[in-house]
Amino acid sequence: MAKKRFSPLTRRKQLPSQKPGTAPGTVEYVGHQKVEEVIISLYDYDEDHIDQLSVTDIEECRPYLENPTKTWIHVKGLHDTEKLKSIWSFFDLHPLIQEDIVNTGQHPKMETYGNCIFFVLRMFTYSNEQKELHSEQISIVLGPNYVLSFQETDLDHFRPILNRLSVQGGRLRIHPVDYLAYALLDTVVDHYFSALDNIGDTIIQIEDGLFEDGNKDLLHRIHRVRRETALFRKSIRPLREAINAAIRDPSDLISDNTRLYLRDVYDHIIQVIDTMESYRDMVLSLHDLYMSNLSNKMNEVMKVLTIIATIFIPLTFIAGIYGMNFNPEASPYNMPELNTYWGYPASLILMALIAVAMIFYFKEKEWL
Amino acid sequence: MAKKRFSPLTRRKQLPSQKPGTAPGTVEYVGHQKVEEVIISLYDYDEDHIDQLSVTDIEECRPYLENPTKTWIHVKGLHDTEKLKSIWSFFDLHPLIQEDIVNTGQHPKMETYGNCIFFVLRMFTYSNEQKELHSEQISIVLGPNYVLSFQETDLDHFRPILNRLSVQGGRLRIHPVDYLAYALLDTVVDHYFSALDNIGDTIIQIEDGLFEDGNKDLLHRIHRVRRETALFRKSIRPLREAINAAIRDPSDLISDNTRLYLRDVYDHIIQVIDTMESYRDMVLSLHDLYMSNLSNKMNEVMKVLTIIATIFIPLTFIAGIYGMNFNPEASPYNMPELNTYWGYPASLILMALIAVAMIFYFKEKEWL
Amino acid sequence: MAKKRFSPLTRRKQLPSQKPGTAPGTVEYVGHQKVEEVIISLYDYDEDHIDQLSVTDIEECRPYLENPTKTWIHVKGLHDTEKLKSIWSFFDLHPLIQEDIVNTGQHPKMETYGNCIFFVLRMFTYSNEQKELHSEQISIVLGPNYVLSFQETDLDHFRPILNRLSVQGGRLRIHPVDYLAYALLDTVVDHYFSALDNIGDTIIQIEDGLFEDGNKDLLHRIHRVRRETALFRKSIRPLREAINAAIRDPSDLISDNTRLYLRDVYDHIIQVIDTMESYRDMVLSLHDLYMSNLSNKMNEVMKVLTIIATIFIPLTFIAGIYGMNFNPEASPYNMPELNTYWGYPASLILMALIAVAMIFYFKEKEWL
Amino acid sequence: MAKKRFSPLTRRKQLPSQKPGTAPGTVEYVGHQKVEEVIISLYDYDEDHIDQLSVTDIEECRPYLENPTKTWIHVKGLHDTEKLKSIWSFFDLHPLIQEDIVNTGQHPKMETYGNCIFFVLRMFTYSNEQKELHSEQISIVLGPNYVLSFQETDLDHFRPILNRLSVQGGRLRIHPVDYLAYALLDTVVDHYFSALDNIGDTIIQIEDGLFEDGNKDLLHRIHRVRRETALFRKSIRPLREAINAAIRDPSDLISDNTRLYLRDVYDHIIQVIDTMESYRDMVLSLHDLYMSNLSNKMNEVMKVLTIIATIFIPLTFIAGIYGMNFNPEASPYNMPELNTYWGYPASLILMALIAVAMIFYFKEKEWL
Amino acid sequence: MAKKRFSPLTRRKQLPSQKPGTAPGTVEYVGHQKVEEVIISLYDYDEDHIDQLSVTDIEECRPYLENPTKTWIHVKGLHDTEKLKSIWSFFDLHPLIQEDIVNTGQHPKMETYGNCIFFVLRMFTYSNEQKELHSEQISIVLGPNYVLSFQETDLDHFRPILNRLSVQGGRLRIHPVDYLAYALLDTVVDHYFSALDNIGDTIIQIEDGLFEDGNKDLLHRIHRVRRETALFRKSIRPLREAINAAIRDPSDLISDNTRLYLRDVYDHIIQVIDTMESYRDMVLSLHDLYMSNLSNKMNEVMKVLTIIATIFIPLTFIAGIYGMNFNPEASPYNMPELNTYWGYPASLILMALIAVAMIFYFKEKEWL
Q: Chain A neighbours among B 175-214 (CB < 8 Å)?
């Protein structure tokens, strides 16, 4: 039984949590099966050659790992516990690594073990069809002459790296295997910029919408961006510390040259985080703007009501006065106006004067 | 007389505070008695055997502690001061440890003493019946070859650990006793994820409720989540530093292997804290959303009032004009319209025109 | 002339500030005289005896200080500069200590001088009669074999310590004099928990009030709690650093054993600060709740107005129509309805239909 | 050409900025000339004597600087570049110091150069006539046996120091010249407490105003305090680091005794900053209170409108019904009520009943 | 293919992002071409001479770089990849530097490589015509005896430096080449003060506008300033760390004298950041003020409506009563008032009394 961690970016119903208190390092995938079958690909390369192999039994990898060339083993799909266990025991991975690979709600981290360095981080991709962020967990194990990587889906996130690997004389081929690990990390971080672009575009659309009509749907979108921003931040912030730890790590597994490149990744992560922070401010500003717009509209509605009501209510009252039925015959004081020669025009003029006065009053108050 | 600390998660009336200035390390339970009787269980184990004993007199433990095997003594219930005192003097615990065990409003901490390491932390469980978080204090004393743990209630939080202890060859049986202390800490932290799940579910329910009808009860629920989040954060944040201190502690009581596992607990706590932070942001966002929804509704109400009033008030005024009783016989200027052939239809048409003009005006303003 | 610092918790009119630029270390009490006469009490004790003395001339203390036993001199009242000066010169206190003792708006701090350690902190007590926090400054000077303490009022804050001192074999009697200094600090910090309890109770009362009637007084109380919280935080936060400095201080004046106890005080202060922070969040939440409640009420008021006005304004208009005086004799088109057989009932039915339609409309909008 | 920095506390039109890219250390005063003529005063003193001299040519200072006594040269007015240049070249000041002295928008800092320590900070004084904060820049250069200080205006900020200097046997006369530098810094910081007092008084006045009538002017005052607080904080925060740097500075120019006094200044600055922070919270709280008060008033206004309108609109409708002119002679169904015996009283009673019912409804809703 | 980073200050449509996963250090300009042709200028100087050269082939620079004099090569325009590549290979720049120069959305940073120090930062200029901030990326490479700088446009930002370079005996000519790098950085930072001035002016204009008429456009301007402030902060904050790193860098490329000047730049950046922070607070305060003003106005509108409606609605009701057509002949109880002698005047007086009472009520409530 594996212990499930919390993966909050999805609102899909999560699998029921296992009982707390189970042993750490127990291995069971907690996500939804996302591939038909676990696919294991091996790439063995050095400056002069590159071999590619689709692996069915992990033992097939042994000759490649035992020779001095660099080896990359990439695993797609995490549901087949048996197969994964065979890989882990083959590489002699620490139980905590095993647990982290299949518990796909991990926050990003970097941990050193005796024989390897372990990275876990989150890949964000924006699917244009569903108009929403998709995220999956990427785990990378960097050993002395191999990189072992895991992803949940069978999407080709790392296709560009394969392309670059196939170029003879490229940096990927020349540098030691830690450069490959860097390239994988860099690819994931590069995807963050696309996610940022999408969030930025949404913010601009909301902003434009606010100054146009201010329909109610904007409120939903502001809230959604706000939630996405909060969760995106949460998933990326710890990565800064993880990469920083990798840069300062005294282990031989990472060469000085690669550290230089990792510093670049580190800068990019800081840039992503800074941009997220300013987006967060901007979304708050958008919400304030929405509320201010709403208040402005309410104000305008109230002004219209007040102007119309304030002008006509007194006039209607005057009309009501002269609609009373006091009997002029009973007393000379009973509504003598009704029988005067200029009574009606005078009353109309009185009404007009009141209306004009009111309009002047509103003009002066700048309500008109 | 024990000194009472503040336990703010409960809104139940607290026991009256003792006078400040009493001696530290004085021992008296400040909570409500939660078990019939203090239950002491002893588990003595090594790789080859496990003995279980229900202890009535603490002296029964002496032979188990003096042999080289590992021993876990677990105490449920904190109200029987005499019994607890016998345990403490048996283990020679520092007065400050004694005070912290029974003052159940402690914030989480880890402290090293000459002969032991002391952890205090808070267990959160979500009771489905009462729909609320229940919390109790867990204290763990890690000695050279024993673990001594205390809890307030008789709930079986640590049942899974007992199950794992009973498995021959399991890590709990093989590793030294500090691994057991780790397992207890890990179990408590694992429960935080369940509590987080519950808070997350509540947030999603509120969110759904906001976009449906927005009944007033939502306001209570938003406020309750906000309070729960604030208090949960307060109870967990200091744990980060406590576990970190345990990892860096130079004492021999914690082995390097266990430090590796504690690092994992540390990561989980960070993850819990980060998730709490994003929940906090999301609850604030929910409140803003609630307010915006309210303003939107108010706006709609005002528009309906304004439209109806603005259309009918002028019409009523016109009707009022022709309801005046100026005497046509007294003057040809007194309401001659009343005697014209098309007077009535013309006035109706005038009214209709005004209404249509108003409706156009509102259409143009996009109020309709 | 002493320099006055700012003491913002009181809203009483402060004494006029002295001109800036006066010499530091000049001695004049800036507060209001709070006792009739400065009271100096001396307690000389060791494991075997305790002597108590009411001191009028500070020279009476000399024999007690010169013998090896521990001595506590406690001063109540700060207005008699001459008397204080005699004490200070007797103990050879640094001018900055002298200034800090009488300038009672100090923020908490700990400072080491050659011959002593100086603590200044603020005691908070909640007076049940006036329903408000009272605060006064406590200064503690820890020398090699004496503790010298000052307070502004003659309240018996430290009575429990005297009680414990009188118990032969108690820790206070056994441990060196720095343990007494710790006990004084601990007593002050323990009072913070009572103050916290009071603030917490007020928050709960406001919360209950909000869900009951929401009278205007709540706004005052929310604001008052908010101000109290802000000022309480300000007065306590620096204490954390002060106690931390005392723990790490290399001086011999504080023994390792007492450092252990100071660590406990440190933990309590952190707990007070954390609780203040969560109270601050909760008060903000309460204010938001108040505003939301207000908006909800306004919404309800507007709905009632809108429903009534929207139903009756059109009906009144119809009644107005048939109240017009167009002369039916002047034209067959002038209000022929008035002379129809079913005119009046038909108009009433029309009105009823309009009212029912409106009510249905409001039902559909869930305003009713 | 000097480069102008930004001085945001004044809203007066600033001098046009010089083009960026000019050489650092170029010397030209950027403020408004505030004195007729640059006044240079020299005070040469030691324990036994004090000489005072009004300097016209800086060369007059040479004998005083070359003798071993302590010398303080104080300059009032910064507009006369030639005179200032002669002083700077006389003291061989670094170009960056020269630039900072005349660019009067500096934020506070402390910098060490080979032959001196340079302080720049801001003096705040509250002018009672104009009811606003006035600020000017104070620069202090501490050399081996001299202090050189600059201020913009000819106000007598440092008069109390002169008074203390004239007292034989005073600390200022006995201690080395760095104590004088400390005294100048302390005087400036002491003025911050007066400024704080003024802000605090304004906050209390606003608070009192809020609970009295809530006139619109309060909004201006809240905003002004908010702006003043923001700018005051900005001008003082960096001073903390500057003084801290001075305390830790290894230079011989500051003696250990003076470091002790600087630590006191440091504590005062922290206290000023903490108080500013709590003022900031309180001003935010005041603004929230203002808004809540406003909402409460709006609510009350709306209730009055709603109550009056809701009671009278239905009554007016009923009156409107019986004001219709349906011809009773045309049909027995046309308004037969008009001819009944009790028709009028019955209609009045009906109206009264409706009014009473409405009032009961509002009572129940607690609107009355 | 170069990898594009996010440049959020422009709202112009960005170029499509390249696929993540491309090799780092690949070189392609991501911005819009801003100059006709890449312009390369060389300035070779020492204390005694200065040579200026417009370079077409980078090889022309070799003799200048090989002699011991100082050399500045400034490049305007980044679109001609071939030309840039020739420069980079000539100077043997690291691939990551190459990538950063053309990816013009970099956040500010300073990085040391074996043979050079690399700065990237952002120049802000305020164009008075378009009333908006323009920004471009400046890259500076400091080598042993050369400075290589890049900018996107052909604007003459560094003209003042050229002017100062041409002055024989000026500091730029005397000091080593790192002083030139400092001068470039200082010029960029000086421009920030102009940008700050512009933001400050806008804030003052908005403030003035708020107290005058409060037109809707202010909301847009507040929002724009808020966005500009957020993005400006994001672009400048990391610069602090970059300059700090340069100051502490142990490399020989920066002399101790220049470090002193860099410390000055560092102080300026802190000042810019502090000012930005206080502007941010002030803009938030402005928005609150806007909302409060709006609420005040709404309150006023509602009061006018309520006063008019509340006065006239009851009067209209009374007029409506006496407009009813109950037949006086059918019953003595049917509207006998209509036939009384003083009926009409009495009803008018009643109405006037009600109106006066209402006005008194509003006076008492201070609504009038």
A: 183, 186-187, 190-191, 193-194, 196-197, 200, 204, 211
